[in-house]
Amino acid sequence: MQNILTAVVQGIIEGLTEFLPVSSTGHLILSGKLLNFTGDKADTFEIIIQLGAILAVAVIYWRRILNLLGIKGLTPEMTGDQQDKLPGRLNLLHIILACMPAMVLGLVLHSFITSYLFSAYTVLVGLVFGGIFMLFGESSSKSSVQSAGVDQITYKQAVYIGLFQCLALWPGFSRSGATIAGGLLAGVGYRAATNFSFLIAIPMMVAASGFELLKSYNTLTASDAVFFITGFLVAFVVALIAVITFLKLLERFKLAPFAYYRFALAAVFLVYLLVTGN
């Protein structure tokens, strides 16, 4: 029962935080410490539930994904002749340009990151500085938005967002926070930056999860099947709800409330670590 309860709790945390600008990795590291759920099994479990969250976004953006893959007439915003009238239509090159910097840097620094940065204290640092960057992106975003819709994002803006995504290699910084705030700094509107952030999350997370899963697949056993499946399904359902809700909330509250939440979480958990001596 305790294992199933842990799977449900971690699945909920993953689903809620993976695509919100609050850092899912940071939350899972901190909650894993509280639940005493660490080690190889915990690491593999995190990969599995991340795949559940990825599936949720793929379901939400399935029309856009099919269009990016060359299947026309199925984009969420418009269909038919209207699609051909957009001069800057989003395509796979935008996605590749945005993903390559973090993929390459992540591969180069993988050993360093996993050896030195996956601790509670480094997560707290990432939460604080990621929050500061989000506030900076929001306050410094250009008054005249150059790309109000995701189809208006330029290749140059895609590269900028990809470079900002590299900041998220530090656990706790938040991939979505870095890319959304980076998009604002590049002149992309809130909604467009958020949609683009979610779209590039799919190849980024599939690549990262696939790489980690290949390294740790030997920790999977038949006896853990129910545990892993439970976490996967919970993460999928919660992420589905969280993404749809976040898209609505962002239009009203922007990034600032999420930044302040990060500061509060970092402060509370720092007190916990100091009091417990961990």
Can you walk through the features of this model?
The chain has 278 residues and is mainly α. Helix content is 73%, strand content 0%. It is built from 13 helices and no strands. The chain has helices at residues 2-17, 24-35, 40-60, 62-68, 81-84, 92-108, 110-116, 120-140, 155-165, 175-185, 190-216, 225-253, 256-276. Helix 3 (40-60) packs across helix 12 (225-253), helix 6 packs across helix 11 (190-216) and helix 10 (175-185) runs antiparallel to helix 11. It is globular. 42% of the residues are buried.
List its salient traits:
278 residues; mainly alpha
Quick recap:
The protein is mainly alpha-helical and 278 residues long.
Rg, please? Answer: 19 Å
Q: Sheet bearing the most strands, described? A: none
Helix percentage: over 70%
Number of strands: 0
Q: Structural class given helices, strands, pairing?
A: mainly alpha
Low-confidence spans: 75-87
Separate helix tally: 13
- Averaged pLDDT: 88
Shape: globular
> Secondary-structure element sequence?
HHHHHHHHHHHHH
Beta-strand portion reads under 5%
How far apart, in Å, are the first and last alpha carbons? 27 Å
Helix/strand layout:
Layout: H1 2-17, H2 24-35, H3 40-60, H4 62-68, H5 81-84, H6 92-108, H7 110-116, H8 120-140, H9 155-165, H10 175-185, H11 190-216, H12 225-253, H13 256-276
Helix pairs in contact: 1-2, 1-3, 1-12, 2-8, 3-11, 3-12, 6-9, 6-11, 8-10, 8-13, 9-10, 10-11
